[in-house]
From TrEMBL:
Pfam families: TetR_C_1, TetR_N. Residues 2-62 form the HTH tetR-type domain. InterPro entries: Homeodomain-like_sf, HTH-type_TetR-like_transc_reg, HTH_TetR, Repressor_TetR_C, Tet_transcr_reg_TetR-rel_C_sf. One of its GO terms (molecular function) is DNA-binding transcription factor activity. It comes from the Bacteria. This is TetR family transcriptional regulator.
């Protein structure tokens, strides 16, 4: 990556951290870098390309090190998932961006390839690899986005406290699990349990469809 392009992406990341993703624009980045907006077009063709570059910059941090590349497939997937969650904890706006932009830059495509390779090594039939990659990516990004947005924030979950926003009549599912709805949630432990479920799903697909 050229020095100026790297500076442009750094500026976009800084603006998003300071003011939110909506504040990232070609003009705002140009002002931060100290050039005219037209000067940016030699390095990023438009705002969409700028955001794609930011996605690539974020996903580049997920790529395994040379030492990690030799780990077992499930360890590599787990490391990738934890790294993605860590990114969204550091940059809460990143979850929405990663969810909404395709992986089109070289670093972004390499991150996806890490998942493809791990699934192939797990014995998943090649025809099933793209589907499982989408499932894994959707889970990890969805969890990260929900956590970053506060959807998983602790608080009273008892439906009785939100009766005005709930439909009339009984809610049998809520009633059945009511004793567990208000318990404190350890999101780290829940994330680990979800990853274990995904690992077992991968192993089942590899065993039954391989």
């Amino acid at each position: 990556m050229g020095g100026r392009r790297e500076e442009i992406l750094d500026a976009a990341l800084a603006i998003a951290d300071e003011h939110g993703l909506d504040a990232v624009s070609m003009r705002a980045v140009a002002d931060r870098v100290g050039v005219t907006p037209m000067a940016l077009y030699r390095h990023v063709s438009d705002k969409a390309a700028l955001l794609d570059g930011v996605v690539g910059r974020l996903l580049a941090t997920l790529l395994p090190s040379d030492a990690e590349a030799g780990h077992a497939w499930n360890e590599r997937l787990s490391a990738l998932a934890h790294a993605c969650r860590a990114i969204t904890q550091l940059h809460p706006w990143a979850a929405h961006l990663l969810f909404s932009r395709p992986a089109v830059t070289p670093d972004a495509v390499r991150a996806v390839d890490v998942i493809y390779t791990a699934l192939i090594e797990a014995g998943v039939p090649e025809r099933e690899v793209p589907r499982l990659e989408r499932l894994i990516s959707t889970f990890v990004l969805g969890f990260a986005a929900s956590e970053a947005s506060g959807r998983f924030a602790p608080g009273p979950l008892d439906p009785r406290s939100h009766r005005g926003r709930l439909p009339d009549g009984e809610l049998p599912g809520h009633s059945r699990i009511a004793p567990w709805l208000d318990l404190p949630v350890d999101l780290g432990a829940e994330f680990e349990a979800d990853l274990d479920d995904i690992r077992r799903l991968i192993e089942t697909v590899a065993r039954e469809q391989g």
